[in-house]
Amino acid sequence: MADQFNGAANNAYKNARSSRELLETSNHKADIIEGSEGVTQEDLDTYRHVADRLPTSAWLVVFVEFAERWSYYGTTNLYSNYIRAPLPLDSKDGRVIHDRENGIAGALGQGQQKAFTIRTFNTFFLYLTPWIGAILADTRWGRYKTIMVFSFVCLFGHIILVWSAFPDSLENPDGAVLLLVLSIIIMGLGAGAIKANVSPLIAEQYTGKLRKEILPSGETVVFSPSLTIQSIYLYFYAAINFGAAGSVSAAFLARDHGYWSAFLVPTVIFALVPVVLAMGRNKYVLTPPDGSILPDTFRVIRTAMAPACSWNPMHTYLTIKSDKFWDAAKPSHYPETRTPKMITWDDQFVNEVARTCSACAVFMFFPVFWLCYSQIDGNLATMAAAMKLNGTPNDVIQNLNPIAIIILIPLMEKIVYPYFRKRGIQFSPIKRIFAGFTVAGIAMVYAGVLQHFIYQESPCHDNEPSKCQTEGGLPNPANINVWVIAGPYMLVGLAEVFAAVTALEYAFTKAPARMKSVVMAFSQFQAALASVLNFAFTKLNAENMFGWLFGTFAIASWITGVVFLWT
């Protein structure tokens, strides 16, 4: 009898407990998620998540980036031939007069390695100057004014570039080189300052919250801010590549009408940037500057590092990895009367610095990725010059990269990523970046194998096949159709969708509000570091060494991707 009573009591207890847990779960699911517009946890678990609509101001920023990238790629895509190759036979402005079918436009005749040096400096300087724009925007002018001021700086550099390509300027190649370098410096200052601010500005235009809505089809969906930010940067990167693809006319203009006309078109396109900025002035969501934070940021890091500094590297490593690493920089860590005088900030600022460093740590792997990317605007164009062009300027092939990205971005946004989410596959930012490194390495292997076949098929073999000529001075290319080189361009495009787009998204979402431009500048600074590394490979940037160069970059990309995923 007692056993029956105890059994009944236990069953009653279990039933009551189950009912209480069910009620608590039900109440939890009915709770409205903080910061949302009436969305409960049950809504979040039940309905499909979609990206929200973008405001008009965001599309205006997209156009600014589109025009800036058209002007950039419409000039830099021509630098390889413009600097490397001499004026074609009987030409005064770089246009091809004889054998236009396979002829190469050229102007300055400085050779492959000098062309590599100037192009690499251009990339280095362009991705160094975002620091200037970021600091000015975050501390003094705000993002809108910074972009407006430096758009005029960049426009002035474009005008000098056009001047360098006039027939009168090309009569003195040394003077034309000086004008080119001057234009690169001025345009790099302007474009770099713009780059640090455009990408945070576009995401700031979206101010929506988590909410649910019934679509015209009758389906209830949840509009997700995180998916919207991911979508914003996918479309932002698409704008970059629409601009890059729009510059396809530049190669034909250079070949058929000379370099001054090819450089003039992107100059006119860029002149629209300040006009569009002014038109949308009252529409933008603007974040005001918030004082100079970089000095305090470095002081916070120095204060936190003090306990970690040791001759024992393991002690330093373990201290930095510790959850309490930042405590030494927080005022709350000390008794009120013993807070060090140098600590003039609060705990929240230390937390923001910690988040900033966490975001920046991810980008430190990217120089190797940008080394692989750097091949598409230089060495691959030189390879293309050694192949059968059949009426296609070798500079045009570079546009396969942005065209591939334009196709891949909506494919990923509308099909691939939703499919993964539907199947419960977590294709996180870290995994996407790893995939980008992997694909970039595959692109380099493709390029190295193709270079091997160019050596075999070219009448000049590995003796500068891009310059191979007949006895009459006409081009004598390898018997390989130039479109075979499409592979590396398209693979690098896929790698960018995985890695570069995700880096933009990661930089914005992880950075504190008042440090977004600085974090974006740090992200872009990795391309400058890649250029510095590239200088170490100067001897491999000769045509007879391209195979070794591509193989080295492939292995480096794969190793870096694995280390990145592991850490």
Automatic annotation (TrEMBL):
GO molecular function, one term: transmembrane transporter activity
Pfam families found in the cross-reference section: PTR2
Keywords: Membrane, Transmembrane, Transmembrane helix
Major subcellular site: membrane
Location of this chain's protein in the cell: Membrane
Transmembrane in keyword set: yes
Entry's transmembrane regions: 147-166, 178-203, 232-253, 259-279, 357-376, 433-455, 482-506, 518-540, 546-566
Membrane topology term: Multi-pass membrane protein
InterPro entries, A to Z: MFS_trans_sf, POT_fam
Annotated GO CC locations: membrane
Stated family: Belongs to the major facilitator superfamily. Proton-dependent oligopeptide transporter (POT/PTR) (TC 2.A.17) family.
Cited PANTHER family: OLIGOPEPTIDE TRANSPORTER-RELATED (PTHR11654)
Entry protein name: Peptide/h+ symporter protein
Organism: Pterulicium gracile
